[in-house]
Amino acid sequence: MYYLRRFDPWRSPLCTCPPKYSLSPYTGCSHMCLYCYATAYIGVKKSRPKRDLLVKLERDLRRADPSLPVSMSNSSDPYPPEEASEGLTRRVLKLLLSRGFKVILVTKSDLVIRDLDLLVGSPVTVSVTVTTLDDSLAARMEPGAPPPSKRLSAIQRLSEEGVPVSVRIDPVVPGLNDDSEDLRELVREVRDSGALHVVTSSYKARPDNLSRMCRAFPDRAELWRELYKKRGRWTRGYWYLPLGLRARMLKPIVEEARRLGLTYATCREGLTDPRFFNAPSCDGTHLIPDVRR
User: Fold this and answer.
1) Distance between CA atoms of 121 and 92, rounded to whole angstroms?
2) pLDDT in tens, 257-269
3) Beta-carbon neighbour count of residue 55 at 10 Å?
4) Whole-number Å distance between alpha carbons of 252 and 124
5) Distance CA 23, CA 70 (A)
6) Which domains does the chain have, with CATH numbers?
7) pTM (two decimals)
């Protein structure tokens, strides 16, 4: 089994990510986000360190192309609560940087600032997911993750130390966190905290996560079943909202980002014209510093 793999999200023709590797130090994710897509194939599990990860990663790196960045993590957060004691992501990060690899850290946790000593001056960018500014709403959607207020503080600290940060406003869920003024305010807050790039995506429902969402927000259940199951489109394991609705939901985010001078992109939406996508990369790869070690 290889732990370092080329990123290939089910060969989706809508994926606009540049070539990169994917690496998840943990299996499962203790953030327990209701909308998580990964639970469809790994189940709902707390974060567990992968067995013999560092030994196998050493092996994988010998055959890897160091010109490609390594993204941590696309299916489980690299900074779950367990990382505070395990330190596994920190050890992986040290190994990758010592081998000359570029790194994208994708997280919902402010624990990432613990590793500032490794991040500053390194070929690393951090992508922080912020779905709402409402801490109470976030606690219902992402019950195991730190509140958005702590994530904003982490963005500010990283930016102050010169670590380039992008923000994922993802997912945007109809009738839940899609208020246009709230989304514009969110973009302003992340910009003021120091973010340089925003990528956004609509909620793409799978049977298991839609069931969780409907149980947690029963007053929205009928709306979501109508929009996704009746009016939406099933493709490659997901229900997609109608394209026009997705465009309207995401428009406030990209418009505000454009107004504020941020680069912006959408993720697996098929919305690639300049109104929705003006960045060199969707995932923030273009922010990785050119560091000669």
Assistant:
1) 17
2) 999 999 999 999 9
3) 10
4) 29
5) 7
6) 5-203+239-287 (3.20.20.70)
7) 0.96
